[in-house]
Design brief:
With about 325 residues, the chain is mainly α. It has two domains: about 80 residues, no CATH class; about 220 residues, Orthogonal Bundle (Hypothetical protein af1432). The chain is about 60% helix and about 5% strand. It is built from 14 helices and four strands. Strands 1-4 form a two-stranded antiparallel sheet. The chain has a two-stranded antiparallel sheet with strand order 2-3. Helix 13 runs antiparallel to helix 14. The protein starts with a strand and ends with a helix. About 5% of the residues have low confidence. The chain binds fe (ii) ion (2 copies).
């Protein structure tokens, strides 16, 4: 009976609009219907639940898709909200991650894009990634990654926002898949937090040690039940290359997970942007031409075609 219900985070509830599905609470190991489809949870009721330290709600497993879709739609609806406002309410460690993320996001996207549709897709991606960053496990993981370097957190947030943005523009509309893309790319380099580099290590040794980070990342996530197998694939496979020259398993072509093939391109683009010189627009242009010139062998060519078209339209 318990298996019919799926545990979700309280903050995923759409407040101030009719519930798309029945909501259950777990009381004395029983699932009790708390609100039914069509009911409204207003801000006061939501705050009461928070005060009661109810962090999770349950929904029927058949309702998962519609529930997540409503959550994603509400992220799009509330895109006008100021990120700064949210930051003030968060615990300090999360605020730090968010401040980092805002800076990182601005480093890859123009603050205010002139094209309305592009601006909307960017905001939606940023919102979704900020929501994912609120999850207890991702907060913990990013704090851990911060011990390796702050730059890796910036990079992870950039790759995550860019991957979700590219996915949205490529027509991925399923909320669960977008959530997987956002989470997988946010965690893709988490294994770096387990790489031990010593002062006397040569560049060659550091390079060899770093090559272990996909496997170290997978080991870190292995125990975590809330992390799906798709997310684990993204972490272990993000340095595999389409021509089989990548690592750690020299996977080739479509044996690399579909979502990983997209995230690997975003990963490379963010590295190129960071290394390029000049204004943001100049760095974007240079990075696009590097991907165009040098990476057709390493990436899924159909995906790279689409990504380059989207990027050329102007991120
Ligand atoms: Fe990596
Ligand atoms: Fe990376």
């Amino acid at each position: 009976m318990g298996e019919l219900y799926v545990k979700r985070e309280l903050y995923e509830l759409c407040i101030n609009k009719p519930l798309p599905v029945n909501i259950y609470l777990q009381i004395s190991s029983k699932f009790v219907c708390y609100k039914t489809k069509g009911d409204l949870i207003d801000t006061k009721t939501f705050q009461k639940l928070e005060l009661q330290k109810i962090n999770n709600i349950f929904i029927h497993e058949n309702d998962l898709r519609i529930f997540l879709k409503c959550h994603l739609d509400s992220l799009i609806d509330t895109q006008e909200e100021e990120v700064e406002e949210e930051t003030a309410k968060e615990p300090p460690e999360l605020s730090n991650a968010k401040i980092e993320s805002q800076r990182a996001m601005l480093d890859i996207f123009q603050a205010q894009h002139p094209d309305k549709a592009i601006a909307q897709a960017i905001k939606t991606s940023q919102k979704l990634v900020l929501e994912i960053m609120k999850l207890p496990f991702t907060t913990k993981a990013l704090n851990l990654l911060q011990t390796y370097s702050k730059g890796s957190v910036d990079h992870s947030v950039n790759v995550s926002v860019l991957s979700v943005y590219l996915a949205l523009q490529m027509g991925y509309a399923n909320a669960t898949i977008l959530q997987t893309i956002g989470t997988g790319s946010l965690l893709h380099d988490i294994g770096k937090s387990k790489v031990n580099v010593f002062d006397n290590d040569t560049q060659e040794i550091i390079g060899l040690k770093l090559k272990e980070h996909p496997l170290l990342g997978l080991n870190l996530l292995q125990e975590e039940k809330t992390i799906s197998s798709e997310i684990k694939s993204i972490v272990i496979q993000h340095h595999e290359a389409y021509d089989g020259s990548g690592y750690p398993n020299h996977l080739r072509g479509n044996s690399i997970h579909d979502l990983t093939r997209l995230i690997s391109i975003a990963n490379c683009f963010d590295h190129a942007i960071t290394e390029a010189q000049g204004s943001l627009v100049e760095r974007q242009k240079k990075s696009i031409s590097i991907l165009d010139r040098e990476y057709y062998k390493l990436f899924d060519p159909l995906k790279l075609d689409k990504v380059l078209k989207i990027l050329k339209l102007g991120i």
